[in-house]
């Protein structure tokens, strides 16, 4: 997403119109999630994807038409049959794609969006993608840019802008891209306007505790998945950037003290995942006592079943109840038969993904029905 915004900003700065096609809604086994975009540049270059290849040709042609006309279009692509869907998706899913012309006159706020994304600051772009009925007030295509401390642009009225900004800030905090329905004057119960909120959130955090070989592999896969990865250990001889080159930061501190300080500073949220790889009671018990009291996306701890049973006994002694202990993924990871640090990191990452989306971890070949969940079980990683 950051690369797409950067390319948009470059073309925007050159003053030539181009098109952006954005997935705004999906059903069934859709290939890519809402918020995914494809750009069609002034020179005809195509960047990004909306379906992994199924409908890109049709979207490309529509994008060129929208660039020429300046009129945005919301198009539905689904199963290729006689039900008037424009183009077939081989996966059997359905997607709504909003195609719009982008230029400095129509989107003067793009500069501030691009600057925020480049700086890693949260920002949301709200676009009116559909109007239920004749668009007498010219609402289609209007946009509002929402930051934690302000807004720019307008959806057509001050009351609507204020109501939408409140909801958009909630989505920003959770890193979620969603579609909202509002009335013309900001009434949430009405549904005249369909508003797509594209969230560019700060990356979710992955905190890896224990400066061991498994942590190095976990840092690599965490960064690959889009997390901002921190490796923390109390032992300065092991907690060095040289040992963990793919971590975004390496911290020397007692794990429980560092996690508590980060939570008190507001740098921990419901997207944060914690991987405890120390399997040493003097480190992991105080750490887990803090972690299991926080609203985190995932808390996993490495160790044998004997270590796990001993850890639970010690944690109960700290006053943690069974509801809090039930949040602990231990022994950490899915049963993949992993042996090496790299394989173990894959099993941990797989468990984090399954936990996020409500997956079972079962082989798809043994299941029936849709292979994609429609809603995340926990707030998604954004941006």
Blueprint (SSEs and pairs):
Elements: H1 2-14, E1 18-27, E2 37-40, E3 46-48, H2 56-69, E4 73-77, E5 94-102, H3 110-118, E6 123-131, E7 143-147, E8 150-154, H4 158-174, E9 178-182, E10 193-200, E11 205-209, H5 213-224, E12 228-233, E13 249-252, H6 255-264, E14 273-276, H7 281-291, E15 298-301, H8 305-317, H9 322-325, E16 328-329, H10 341-357
Parallel strand pairs: 11-12, 11-14, 12-13, 14-15, 15-16
Antiparallel strand pairs: 1-2, 1-5, 2-3, 4-5, 6-7, 6-10, 7-8, 9-10
Helix pairs in contact: 1-3, 5-10, 6-7
Pfam families: XdhC_C (PF13478), XdhC_CoxI (PF02625)
Protein name: XdhC/CoxI family protein
Domain XdhC- CoxI: 11-78, 117-183
Order of helices and strands: HEEEHEEHEEEHEEEHEEHEHEHHEH
The residue ranges in which pLDDT falls below 50 over 5 or more consecutive positions are 81-86, 374-383
Radius of gyration: 23 Å
Distance between the first and last residues' Cα? 6 Å
Mean pLDDT level: 89
Shape: elongated
What kind of sheet is the major sheet?
6 strands, parallel
What class would the helix/strand composition place it in? alpha/beta
**DSSP, total strands:** 16
Strand content: 15-25%
Number of helices: 10
Helix content: 25-40%
The main sheet orders its strands as: 13-12-11-14-15-16
How would you sum up this structure, described in words?
The protein is built from ten helices and 16 strands. By secondary structure, it is an alpha/beta fold. The chain has a six-stranded parallel sheet, with helices on both faces. It has helices at 2-14, 56-69, 110-118, 158-174, 213-224, 255-264, 281-291, 305-317, 322-325, 341-357, and strands at residues 18-27, 37-40, 46-48, 73-77, 94-102, 123-131, 143-147, 150-154, 178-182, 193-200, 205-209, 228-233, 249-252, 273-276, 298-301, 328-329. Helix content is 31%, strand content 23%. The model is unreliable at 81-86 and 374-383 (pLDDT under 50). The radius of gyration is 23 Å and the shape is elongated. This is XdhC/CoxI family protein. Residues 206-352 form the XdhC Rossmann domain. Residues 11-78, 117-183 form the XdhC- CoxI domain.
